[in-house]
Amino acid sequence: MSESEEIIREETSNSTKILFSSPRLGSSIVLGIEGWAMFTLYTSGYGLHPFLAGFAIAMGYLTIALSQFLLGWISDAKYTKWGRRKPYIIIFAPLLGISLIFLILPGFVLDLNDPTSFNFMGILFQKETLFLWMLLWEIIFRASYAVTTPYQAWMAEEFPIEERPKVSQFQNTFNYIGNGIMALFSMIVLTTYINALDGAPDLNIPIPSSISISIITFGILTIVLFNIVAFKMPTEPKYEIKTNLVENLKIIVKNKNFMLITLMVGISGLGWSMVTTSMLKYLQDALHMGTMDFIISSVFLLLSIFIFLYLWRRLIQKKGKKQSLLYVFIAAVIFMPISLLGLIPMQSSLVLGIIFIMGIGAILGGWFLFPYIVYADVAEDDEKSTGELKAGIYAGFPSIILNIFQAAGAFFIGSILSLPDVNPTGGVGLEFSMGLVLFGPIVSVILLISYFYTKKYVKLDFDWEKR
Asked: Looking at the domain assignment, is residue 9 inside a domain?
């Protein structure tokens, strides 16, 4: 294929779209557990200081910032007999599944009662070994999660633009099935274990088989689904990229709209990372929800996910990508201050918990629909002017900015959750950090900035799409 020719993307069947989308089931489960539950597990369960947990998560975000970019960049560079993307999927998917197991189940190896203390930034902390374990496996987990970059870059090569919203919908359907499984596991099974740890004098209590078997199953599922796609999906068409890696980087940095989009994703990511890190801890610590409350809330979460996934996708088709994204931001800005209601004493927090979790599902469902589409569209827009499709670097580069902002969000949430406790009800053992009610309004301010920035500077709908 000559340099100036466009890649011919043939129409694909729904079965191919579903096959391509299926790894999102495993990746959403493992990333969801890591994002939703790990902070709560290590702080409320294992007793690690929130600042240290936030620091470890922040280091993980910085790791993925580099690794996602590098994998996207490198996978663009060489076309092998298996294509550009498949080799990296086969190598990194096993690491992703294995690292989740060690990250969530440190009790298989460590003495969780080890009180070893150390001085960090002038502050004396305990549980040095647990902190180093979390830090190590968080870095490995995030580095291996970069497998999603060559995988996602594949979309621009395999599917024509008019099919990408449907592919994204299939991906997000698997995402939300995975998130549903993850939510049920995190909010019912894992929180029961966290509560048991929180009230136990000895943290080395037996790990319930419902947890150990589930985590091992999730890790294996992730490995299997990525490898099925790697072996079953057709290899993408061979095309030359005569520019080298440095030249490609210069090209995308000079793409003004792409850089503006990248900054928008980063600013938004600061807020979204605070939401995903804090929401389970808010439900457990601020609203004091029990097992049955979590079961009921999980049902409503699943309903919210699937209803709003469909509604946001329809809105994109009707209003376009940019206007729909602006609606997502406005919805989040209006909704997130609901966290302040945690300061109001109430006999039952179930209704507030249901409203909170449904709202989170609705707005995150809208946001996560966009990146898959936008990066592929921008890569194709560049292809029309340069004659080269650099899908890997366009999918990977935004991770640098995004994960730096997400690292700041994780570090920030760890800091604000170290604020003094409040006890609105006055009950014994019902104290929680003031940061748990303040994080919502803070997120609203961040996403309001994202709204005005996106409205003024970002272009998401291209003229060639209409043709």
From this structure: no
Instruction: Give every CB contact of residue 285 below 8 A, 6+ residues apart in sequence.
Output: 44, 432, 433, 436
The CATH code of the domain that includes 324 is 1.20.1250.20
Domain range for residue 281?
A: 14-466
DSSP string, 317-366: HHH-HHHHHHHHHHHHHHHGGGGGGGGS--S--HHHHHHHHHHHHHHHHH
Please report whether residue 87 resides in a domain. yes
Distance CA 213, CA 219 (A): 10
Instruction: Determine contact, residues 283/297, Cβ cutoff 8 Å.
Output: yes
- Spatial contact of 390 and 251, defined as CB atoms under 8 Å apart: yes
Q: Is 5 among the domain residues?
A: no
**With contact defined as beta carbons under 8 Å apart, do 130 and 112 qualify?**
yes
**In Å, how far are 166, 167, 170 from 14, measured between CA atoms?**
9, 9, 9
Tokens 């729904």 correspond to what residue? Answer: 14
Express each pLDDT in 51-77 by its tens digit: 888 889 889 988 887 887 778 777 777
The Cα diameter of the chain in Å comes to: 73
Which candidate, 85, 180, 90, places its Cα nearest to that of 144?
90
Secondary structure percentages of the chain, helix, strand, coil, to 5: 75, 5, 20
Joined tokens for residue 212: 């150990």
Model confidence pLDDT, tens digit, residues 312-339: 878 888 888 899 999 999 999 999 999 9
Residue 372 has a pLDDT of 65
The verdict on residue 340 lying in a domain is: yes
Distance CA 395, CA 291 (A): 40
In angstroms, the first-to-last Cα distance of the chain is: 23
Structure tokens at 418: 């170290």
Domain count for the chain: 1
Lowest mean pLDDT among 20-29, 197-206, 368-377, 453-462: 197-206
Q: Cβ contacts of residue 258 below 8 Å, gap of 6+?
A: 252, 378, 382, 394
Could you tell me if 284 and 423 are in contact, meaning their C-beta atoms sit under 8 angstroms apart? no
Q: Which phi and psi (to 5°) does residue 413 adopt?
A: -70, -35
pLDDT tens, residue by residue, 15-53: 888 888 899 999 989 988 887 788 888 888 888 888 888
